[in-house]
Amino acid sequence: MRRLPSAVLSVALSIALSVALAWAPAAAAQTDGSRPAPVPGPAPAVRVPAIQMRTLHNGVRVAVLENHDFPVVDVQAVVVAPAVLDPPGKSGVSALTAQMLAEGTTTRSADAIADAEADLGTAVSARGFYTVPRYFEPALALMLDELLHPAFPEPALERIKANTIARLDRQRAQPAYVAGRVFAAALYGPAHPYARTETEGSVRAITRNDLIAFHRDYYRPRNVTFIVAGDITPERAVTALEHALVDWPTGGKDGWATPAPPPPPGPTRIYLYDRPTSPQSVVLAGSLGPPRDSRDYYALELLNTIVGGAFNSRLNLSLREVHGYTYGASSGFLYRRVPQPSTFEVETDVATAKTDSSVADVLDELRTIRSTRPVSDSELTFAKRTETLSLPLQFATVPATAEAAAALLEFRLPLDYYDHLTRRFEGVTLRDVRSVAERRLDPEHLTVVVVGDRKAVEPGLAAMHLAPTMVLDSLPRPPDAPPAMAHHATAPARPAS
What we know:
The protein is α+β, with helices and mostly antiparallel strands. It contains 17 helices and 12 strands. The strands form 2 sheets. Strands 1-2-6-3-5-4 form a 6-stranded mixed beta sheet, with helices on both faces. A 6-stranded mixed beta sheet has the order 9-10-8-11-7-12, sandwiched between helices.
C-alpha cells in the first residue's frame, strides 16, 4: 500500500535512533552540569567494496561485490515487479506471485525444495540465499528454479489466499493499519495505484492464471538484477549465471513503469476514523515529497533527523519528553523508484485525551522549524554526526553490504554513491537545511489522519480549529466497490495566527 521496500531508509532510521540514544546521556550531563559531555571522535573510515557490474547475454545485470575477508557468499535477486502493477480489482497479484514461488516448480514440489535446502544446509528462496562458497552453484541452481519455473499449484494458492484474507481481517483491528489505509486514500486519491491495497474481495478474485500472466510479463531479464557479494570473483559469478540463464527469454513488460502523478495537495484536512473506546489515538500526518534523485536529498535527510528521525528530534522531545503525550514520535521520507515522488510522514500514538493537543503540536513543530525557530548550528552538527557515524554499519556484514547495493541499484544511484556520501552530508550548510524546510515542509497542505474514539477526540479537535475535520465511517474501498466512506464536516478551518 504505502510502505515501500527501502533497505537504506530502514537501516538509517534504526541506526539514527541508536546514535541518538548514545548522545542523549551526554546532552543531559552537559545540561545539568554534573560532568562534562564526552566529545565524539572522528567518523570511522568506511570500506565499501567496489560494485563491479556485468551484463549477461540476455541483458540481465549482475553486480558483484568481491570481499574475501569472510568465507561466505550472499546472493539477491532484485525483481522490479511492484504492487502498482497489479491489475485493477486484483490488488495482491504481485505479492501472491512472490509468495507462490516457494510452493513448487515444474520439476520440484515444495517438499523437494525443502529437502534440497536441507542438503545445502541453508535457506534458499527465489529472491536469494546465503551460503559458503563451495555451495554457491547448487544453491544458485535451486534459487533460479524457483524464480524462473514456478508451478503455482492450485491447492497452495487457495491456502495462501485464505491466509492472506485472515491476515487482512486481523489487520483491520490494528489502528496503525487503518491509519495507513485512510492516509493513502486521502493523500493519493482512492483510485490511484499508490492507494491500492489488498482487500478480501481483490484477493478472492485472483486466479492461478493471473499469477502465471504476471510472472510471464514481469519476471523477465529486463526487470531483474542479481547481486552477488562475498568470497567470490566476478568471473565465477558471471559464468554460473550465464550457464543457468542461457534459456531465459527476453521480452515481457517494463516493471519500471511509472504511475501518473497523484493529484496536487489541498489545504490541510484532518480525517478522523472512529474507533470507539480506543485508549489511544494513532496520528499519521504527511504530504508528497520530492523524488529520490532530488538535489535536496541530503539536506532533507538531515532536516528529517532533526524533525523526527532520531530519539532527541524535535517531535519526540516535544510530544514525549516535554508533554508526555506519547512513548515516541517519528518522521521520515519514504522513497519510491525514480522518478516517482516520495512521501513525508509523521507518526505517533498518543493518549486519547491529548489527541487534539498532539495534532496541534505536530503542526506547530512543522511551522516553527521553517519560521520562528529554524534549525540551529548544533542541531545540524548532530544530524551530520548521526548520518555519518551510522554509515559503516551498513557494510558490517556481507548480507548488509548486499542489501546496501540492492538499494543503490533499485534507486538507480551512481555506483560510487557510498564513496561520496559522507562528504555530501558534510557539505550541507545551515542555509541549505533552512531552505528545504521552507520549501519542502508545508503544514498548510497536510493530510492528517487520526484513528481514535470520535466521542472523546472530535470535540477537542473542533474547539482548536486546527483544520476542517472529516469523520470516516469505514475504511475506503476500491473505486469499483460500493462506496463506504461517509464524510461529515465538523469544523471550519481558522487561519493560523
